[in-house]
Amino acid sequence: MRVKGLTVFAVSLGLLSMAGSLWAGESPGNPTSPPVYVSFWFDTEDYLLPASDDAAQRLADIFTSQGVQATFKVVGEKARVLRDRGRADVIAALRRHDIGYHTDFHSVHPTPSEYSRDLDWNDGVAEFIRREGRGFEDVRTIFGMDPSCYGQPGSSWTPESYAALRRWNIPVYLDDASQVGLDGRPFWYCGVLNAFNLSGFTTRCTLQNDATLDEGCKQFEQVRQRAAREGGGLISIYYHPCEWVHEKFWDGVNFSKGSNPPREQWQKPPQKPAEATERQFALFARYLEYARTRPNVRLVTAREIATLYPDGAYQRSFTREEIAAMARALAREVSFVRLGDRTVSAAEGVSVLAQAVVGFDKSRQIPESLKPKFFFGPTFEAGETIEQGEFAWNDWVKACRDCLTATEKLSRLPSVMRVGGKVVAPVDFAATLATAVGSIAETGRAPKAVRLVKGNWTVAKYVADDSPRLWGWVIFPDNFSAPKMMALARLQSWTLKPAILSAAQPKTAAPAASALSEKQKIAALLGVIEKSPDIFVRNDEEYPSPAARQLMEYKLKAAGDGIKTANDFIEQVATRSKTTGRVYMVKMSDGRTTESARWLRARLAEIERGGR
Asked: DSSP string of 118-185?
């Protein structure tokens, strides 16, 4: 197997014939047992061997034949090669599933960690977008849908990628490595849902023979039962289509240990015998059937993972009681806070508590309800800051206002905070803020002076220190390290928090795309627009969902017979104003903004895959 991070829980999945003897007495689909979600994903990266194209299609067809979906994370160059080779059949097969993004060229140097490791935050974000933006757009265009997820090549992870994902409206980071993690469970980091580093819940099958399949069956069941005991959750299983046809990985042959030959010198990897490939496909089909038929198991794509783990912090406001509880928790340690069925990162806690101080100063009571605003963590370590001191209340209120203004303009927590002319470290500002709000909640009065409280910044422990174990990918040059980048990653732990599994089930599959006419697809899009919590913006005027539908229906009727397909509807009706030529935008409920055409294409892809 190919190791992406420090450790992969490498196991096999077993024989279907064992299910009756090993797990007799457990009835499938027991409604009292928590659901266990299983995500199969494929890093679809080899653009050298045409046989890898066929392998991707074969795997997609195996899932389709069993009535379930996988996620294919596609490299930009792979998408272009499929197009240029005329492999519309492969593209169509993969489009029946979920499509993610896997960088533009994968292993061609420099990879993301290599080009980001010595850059500051802003330059790292810009460089990632510059190098990977073309591939993102090509995957989106060639497959006709917005990628649902991103994952790095090998262990070439970088924190700056998350800012690009938010800009591209990619909701999920789906991969495996060891740079950041939260007890083997999904988590939020930099405002993106991470199905990443799910240690203990990541598994895969060694596809050699019946014996390995048999042993793997036992291992899969152990992971499934552990997830069920712990209240349900997500199991991650990944492969590469090229594994079915390669004797050696395509990139290891060409780019290992920093090698970077020109394209005309790239070597094709040796291929497996045809009978070995066929045996592996047969074993995999049995493996998939076993996994999907275990009790209370449901297969999910990356796009469905996003619906399983909604960010409750932005779905409804926090009450005064919750704000007080948040303050007490952050005063003890600067970390994430769990409040019932919701979690708040340290950065979101600062956002809410700073609003509470400003609101209290205005009305002499903590506001009845507040919502956080997302921003990234600091981008450099604070230098010399004060160790003790007191601040006048008015100076403290001004500092809270300044904090809210700065986070709004910078989209990040300032790396140093200034209070009454004194320089305060962000962690001490957070602890002092939490202590002050806790006191106000208890006494109903503002303190005459606010005493500095030294913060206990514990959340950084979930981000690894730089070490050789993070960079074990064969593609990296010898002795690769990235201490500056990992320091940035620790600073972004201000945004880290657990993701909470929703009690709601993912949406039930609707009719397949082939069963829907273009007219039905347009009607479905109008229904999605009407029910969406997002707001459409036309020429700077906001249109809530029902009004947005009315506008689109009016324009659709005016367009007459010119609209033949759902894509016609998006491009000719729902993209821009005919009066001004300005592009329609969508303000999403989590605070992000995107073009309406991109938003609608993502919804259309869900409809066509049966995900309404």
From this structure: TS-HHHHHHHHHHHHHHHHHHHHHHHTS---EE--STT---TTHHHHHHHTT--EEEE--SSB-STTS
| pLDDT reported for residue 17 | 38
Is residue 209 located within the same domain as residue 270? yes
14, part of any domain = no
Closest CA to 423 of 375, 462, 389: 389
Report the C-alpha gap between 305 and 186 in whole angstroms. 10
Q: Which of 565, 560, 534, 561 is nearest to 547 (CA)?
A: 534
The domain that holds 260 is classified in CATH as 3.20.20.370
Same domain, 284 and 366: no
Confirm if 134 and 104 have CB atoms less than 8 A apart: yes
| Statement to judge: residues 300 and 270 lie in one domain | yes
Q: Give the span between the Cα atoms of 607 and 566, in whole angstroms.
A: 11
CA distance 307 to 484: 34
- Given a contact cutoff of 8 angstroms between Cβ atoms, the answer to whether 593 and 586 are in contact is yes
Of the candidates 424, 440, 457, which is a domain's last residue? 457
Spatial contact of 97 and 69, defined as CB atoms under 8 Å apart: yes
Which pLDDT value is given to residue 27? 43
Beta carbons within 8 Å of 368's beta carbon, 6+ residues apart: 319, 320
Q: Which amino acid is at 132?
A: E
Q: How far apart are CA 315 and CA 405, in angstroms?
A: 23
Domain range holding 596?
A: 513-608
Check residue 515 and give its pLDDT.
Answer: 57
Query: Do 57 and 130 lie in a common domain?
Result: yes
As a whole number of angstroms, the distance between CA 128 and CA 573 comes to 33
- Cα gap 203→184, rounded to integer Å: 12
- The low-confidence residues of the chain, meaning pLDDT below 70, are 1-32, 504-515, 590, 609-612
Do you find a cis peptide bond into 110, omega within 30 degrees of 0? Answer: yes
Supply the pLDDT for residue 434: 98
pLDDT of residue 32: 63
User: According to the model, what pLDDT value does residue 530 have?
Assistant: 86
Q: Considering the domain boundaries, does residue 123 fall inside one? A: yes
Q: In degrees, to the nearest 5, what angle opens at C-alpha 143 toward C-alphas 251 and 1?
A: 30
Phi-psi map region of 7: left, alpha, beta (phi>0 left; psi -120 to 50 alpha): beta
Q: Is residue 484 located within the same domain as residue 565?
A: no
CA distance 176 to 204: 12
Closest residue by Cα to residue 155 from 487, 488, 481, 498: 481
76 and 216 together in one domain: yes
- Radius of gyration (C-alpha) of the chain in whole angstroms: 25
Separation CA 261–CA 277 (nearest Å) = 29
Global confidence as pTM: 0.82
Task: Examine residue 13 and state whether it is found in any structural domain, yes or no.
Answer: no
Instruction: Let me know whether 375 and 471 are in one domain.
Output: no
Q: How many structural domains compose the chain?
A: 3
- Spatial distance between the Cα atoms of 553 and 531, rounded to a whole number of angstroms: 15
Cα atoms in the 13 Å half-sphere on the side-chain side of 478: 0
Sign, Cα dihedral of 486, 488, 491, 495: negative
